[in-house]
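Quarterly update from the structural biology core.
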Amino acid sequence: MGSLAKRCIVTGGAGFIGSHLVDRLLGDGHVVLVIDDFSSGHRGNLQHHEGHPNLEVIEADIASAPLSQAFEGTDWVFHLAALADIVPSVEDPTAYHEANVAGTFRVLEAARHAGVRRFVYAASSSCYGIPDQYPTPEESPARPQYPYALTKWVGEQYVLHWAQLYGLAAVSLRFFNVYGPRSRTSGTYGAVFGVFLAQKLAGEPFTVVGDGTQTRDFTYVTDVTDACVCAAASDVQGKSMNVGSGNPQSVNRLVELLGGDVVHISKRPGEPDCTQADTRKIEALLGWKARVLFEEGVRIMVENIDYWREAPVWTPRTIEKATEAWFRSLG
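Predicted structure, tokenized:
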């Protein structure tokens, strides 16, 4: 290992964002240990690194597996392992607490006792709920609308508290609407890109929520991994920072770029009409700024559309059934 190389742990490293982070770290010459239970991550996301001398993969659940030995001698920890999505968090909040809160606590403790030099936590912009201010700064009040958002925010509070109390050199990055190749294709109704790309492959209309004028701060995955590396390489600690493009795009614009027919479905409770990151803090502290234009990111997604060939194809009827708990609990 070269003098500038770091020994890194990526929890959830076989997942969407985690696997792209592994790409970046290995490309930079670092040594990487992935810890993933493969509940939502896929071995195929790391297949192109098979046999790489600087990569080790451990199948383990962070909420229950012994972690202490794995963390010894580690420089940077990137904690991305988590359960995601709204509907299953409403239906099974216990699982989300165990993975996202108890799991984060155990990773923090393993990092603290091992003397890890830097700790980067993947937080979520969903903690803002429906904010009062756009662009939304980090000082906005937390208003989580469902258990996923709540558990990610509580995990962040643990991270910031460990930085304050124990001096752990930790930062929290609040990701906004991350998209890119390898985003999840699970049977859970969730992120718009996975839904739309599977529909496009199947020749089905895009299921647009409401009138499609709602906007999202879509942030390309390599910009997000760049923010993670910038945070790890910095001396900033005990801070939460937004990671977003700051340039929200409407769902209608996404449909226009993808091309296809549209069917409209009911607007969902608990969702903001807009997400937009105020990124002045991360720009000032880390010198980071998103670089990938939305149109370029969508083009890359379409070029990689075969990844979603086995994904479920959602229809208005199956979406209505899948979101019953959402409407019942949040409506």
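Residues 198 and 308 are 5 Å apart (CA to CA).
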